Amino acid sequence: MSINWLRFVSPSLKKPPLFHLCHLPPPPSSSSAVIVAMSYDKELAAAKKAASLAARLCQKVQKALLQSDVQSKNDKSPVTVADYGSQALVSFVLQQEFPDNFSLVAEEDSKDLRKDGGQEIVERITKLVNDSLTIDGSYNVTLSTEDVLKAIDNGRSEGGSQGRHWVLDPIDGTKGFLRGDQYAIALALLDGGKVVLGVLACPNLPLTSLSDAGQHSPNNKVGCLFFAVVGGGTYMQPLDGSSAVKVQVSAVENPEEASFFESYEAAHSMHDLSSLIAQKLGVKAPPVRIDSQAKYGALSRGDGAIYLRLPHKGYREKIWDHAAGCIVVSEAGGVVTDAAGQPLDFSKGKCLDLDTGIIVTNQKLMPLLFNAVRKSIQEKASSL
Ligand SMILES: Nc1ncnc2c1ncn2[C@@H]1O[C@H](COP(=O)(O)O)[C@@H](OP(=O)(O)O)[C@H]1O
Ligand SMILES: [Mg+2]
Ligand SMILES: [Mg+2]
Ligand SMILES: [Mg+2]
């Protein structure tokens, strides 16, 4: 392997970039990998169930949002209802399944809901949660408004490197949700600071590739559930529950043939920097801009080959925005690092400590991408 990349590594970089590891022999296969994957079976089943129920709740709210005037009046409360409802639902389901030592790091809390005037919205959330819990007969319960507020606040854990912690983004891509575009319910499990399981429910993501010409046809079904357990690969199934297929990242080696994903929102990622990187790589296709961790899901099944997320200076990434996506892509054969080539460290609490941003691609393209990223960052800095 060429070691040209060393010229572009920042002086502070002490460890070699992660993609170096790609050239180590593969880990001992099948039998030990299966044992690792098997030990999270109960957790996986519960996570899939919780995320699917939450997806149904969100779909219901998004449908009402799109069919009413609310959106044009710019009233964001239905989104708040869906965010809180999804969090309460997932929190409740996981706590039922794992009553001992339950720890959840989640995006929302009930502070605003407990303020004066919050009662009506809490009642709406409670109705949504109760309707969703009883929808397929698996939970015969009726939660009170206080139960729902408590379930939301059970997501107040700080995470860390010890023990097990669930990590939840009840709606990732709130802006996409409001527009009627992509969003995801993202749930992961940390064990000893490492992501060992991830589930991504993407209610608006087409079941066929985003690069297919027919993806906007009315016959094209939407609603994907991606899931991965460490050592066990990544699978995708329709959210309606039919059977799962194993997925793999794109095998593209020539960057000219690669297409790349980035945030729809320019405020979330520097589009000028990603176009410089794409230019250096010789990428021909225009960027595919979509919201949320649906980008990780789409990448895991090879819809595109690269995801660039380069936030503006000062922004600190949260673990719930990447934990599920990261394992979904890496178990599908991809590599997720920061812009210095280091793996993402989910063991430090709610935030990730990153060099510049996050880059994702397959193992073959990573060295080229990494070079282009370092050169582009230096060029941008020297032009300021
Ligand atoms: N200035 C910023 N830079 C980077 N990410 C940001 C940001 N402001 C918000 N975000 C995060 O970007 C997430 C959406 O990512 P994407 O751009 O890929 O759709 C948001 O998740 P939520 O929608 O859960 O709040 C939020 O956490
Ligand atoms: Mg998010
Ligand atoms: Mg969110
Ligand atoms: Mg948010």
Automatic annotation (TrEMBL):
Keyword Cell cycle included in the entry's annotation: no
GO molecular function, one term: inositol-1,4-bisphosphate 1-phosphatase activity
Keyword Hydrolase recorded: yes
UniProt keyword annotations, A-Z: Hydrolase, Magnesium, Metal-binding, Multifunctional enzyme
Gene source species: Gossypium mustelinum
Protein name: 3'(2'),5'-bisphosphate nucleotidase
Reactions this protein catalyses: adenosine 2',5'-bisphosphate + H2O = AMP + phosphate; 1D-myo-inositol 1,4-bisphosphate + H2O = 1D-myo-inositol 4-phosphate + phosphate; adenosine 3',5'-bisphosphate + H2O = AMP + phosphate; 3'-phosphoadenylyl sulfate + H2O = adenosine 5'-phosphosulfate + phosphate
PROSITE patterns in alphabetical order: IMP_1 (PS00629), IMP_2 (PS00630)
Residues bound to Mg(2+): 107, 169, 171-172, 321
Pathway: Signal transduction; phosphatidylinositol signaling pathway
GO biological process, one term: sulfate assimilation
Assigned protein family: Belongs to the inositol monophosphatase superfamily.
Job of this protein: Converts adenosine 3'-phosphate 5'-phosphosulfate (PAPS) to adenosine 5'-phosphosulfate (APS) and 3'(2')-phosphoadenosine 5'-phosphate (PAP) to AMP.
Pfam name, any one: Inositol_P
Cofactor names: Mg(2+)
InterPro entries: DPNP, Inositol_monoP_metal-BS, Inositol_monoP_superfamily, Inositol_monophosphatase-like, Inositol_monophosphatase_CS
Lineage: Eukaryota, Viridiplantae, Streptophyta, Embryophyta, Tracheophyta
Broadest EC class assigned to this enzyme: hydrolase
Enzyme Commission identifier(s): 3.1.3.7
